[in-house]
Amino acid sequence: MFTPRKIAVALATALVLPLLTATTATAAPKPTDPPTPSIPQKYLDQPITWSVCSFDAQIKALYPQAPTTNCAKVKVPMDWANPTAHPDVEVAISYSKATGTSKGLMASNPGGPGGAGLTLSAALATDKPQLFSDFDLVGFDPRGFGQSTPLQCITTAEALNALPVTPDYKERTKLTHKVEKAEAKLQADACAATEFGQFVSSQQTVYDMEFIRALLKARQLNFIGYSYGTWLGGWYADTYPNKVGRFVLDSNMDWTHTQWDNVNFDPFSGQRRRDTQLIPWIARHADQITGLGKTPAQVLAKYNGIRASLVTLVKADESSVRGDGLDGNIYSAIYGNVRFIRATMDILVHDEFVKDPDAGEVTVQHVDRAWARLAPELQAFDTLAAIRARYGVSAAALTTAGLEAAQADSAKSVLADARETAARATSGDQPVNLGAIGTTVRCNDTAWNKDPNFYTKEADRMAKKYSFFGYMNGVPMCAYWNYAPQDRKLDLKGSPRMLIVQGELDPATSYEGSLRTHNDTKQVTRFVAIDDEGQHGQYIGSASACAEAIGDRFVFSGELPGKDQVCGTSPLPAELSVYPVKGPVDGKLVPLPKSKAGSLKVSPLLQQTLDRVANNTLR
């Protein structure tokens, strides 16, 4: 009989076990679940001012039969444990009534931490219209982010101007260590500068979710969560097991372990996705992509050469276009299969730049010349306007939402933008808002090692082991976080079964971490693995018709498979067949359900939402 343990082959075990055994961030005491707070009646009795959401017209343009989606902001305590101790904050919510007989309230979260989810439930329904007919839909921006009361990470121009700089975070030098520590401390101080910082956490958001359920008078909460949304879903189920309806947890974090355990998987899983899928895909399409190579070895050598040239130009003070910036762009782009074209464009744009770096930054000419190096069949998967917007050389053809979804972001680029603001400051004590940094949630959720040297040593080790992005974690701001975390020990006691869906080669939430969480909770979770699939986000618009069908049966009829499953998938863009990858899922162990070749296209609004989360993933 097939079990998840049987599909963890020796190769994956050899790669991952060092991550599980040698990199514990801290010997923290075992977490204790906090008391579950009651909801003060005044919050349930508050008047709600609904108005048609700004995105409702876009929803109806995509699906004319959609019900009207209304939006509002509702007040919640800053700290649910002490509702009167601080000013209230607001959570932005959206809501639509089922057009048929409602099966209940369906919520969702796109990931993050910090992903804005106000549009997500309606966006999912434009791709899966039965959601409109079968469920009352609610979307929300988690506290601290999007249109909810924003987390403000406040520093000063003087502090920003004093930060040291390094030409390349991949170069593991004393200077890089100094830079990482200084940046982490500045971010921690900035995000703790207001009283709200300590309450932007998963546990407080879970309380907000339960409040939304109670406010809308739903008996239970149904939920579709992606990435960090699986962490939220797991925590909600552990906090309110008797309120759990149908939960689909897709592209799972290892939510029975720590936030550090999760981020420490990323260099491994990101490297695997790039090296086993993106680079071979580019090589297979050498006749449609000019000048990157005909074999994986040639493509990798070309990438490394472009990156080295970028670093050389930065060191010569002739450019602001960074090699580690290229790495970050690639890492976020390979979240989605259709975004392989965008990742390829990132390489081509930087190749054009190093050939002609006189402007010191990427220009529209670089982007346009790179675009011309793609065959029309590949250009059809993206737009020149979106690529121009990605590089900030033109945004006229995109909406604000489309622009946000195209532009990659990271904690390092946030600091670079803040430095530009600081350089224009009229005084050193002028405040500068870094914005809402999602790492704050990670700091508040679990205990972290407080020795920054632990992280520099770990990044040094990972950089040697995983050459693509092993250095990505560096020193987190959590090393300097002064507030005590509120962790949980998840056992899901009393919860009904939930569905876990996981691609084998996911770059952002590793298969091995998802499997570990399933093994910790197998009494209440059913696990669906997708062989040879690396997209981050599977259910709804999935590359796997098998996984989509399993999800549909659960969401719309409540039926789960009788045992854990392995699904097949469909080809990558512009291909007719699935290329097998040696990894932790062995599809030969069981007959794979057939999967039709999909168009790889989902609702534009849903794609914008997922792109936005991917592009902010390193922030």
TrEMBL record:
Molecular function GO terms recorded:
hydrolase activity
Checking Gene3D superfamilies in the record gives:
alpha/beta hydrolase (3.40.50.1820)
Cite the AB hydrolase-1 domain residue spans from the record: 124-299
Keywords tagged on the record: Hydrolase, Signal
Q: Which residues form the Peptidase S33 tripeptidyl aminopeptidase-like C-terminal domain?
A: 473-567
One Pfam family here: Abhydrolase_1
Q: Where is the signal peptide?
A: 1-27
Q: Which InterPro entries match?
A: AB_hydrolase_1 (IPR000073), AB_hydrolase_fold (IPR029058), Pept_S33_TAP-like_C (IPR013595), Serine_prot/Carboxylest_S33 (IPR051601)
Q: Can you tell me which family this protein belongs to?
A: Belongs to the peptidase S33 family.
| Name recorded for this polypeptide | Pimeloyl-ACP methyl ester carboxylesterase
Q: Which organism is it from?
A: Kribbella italica
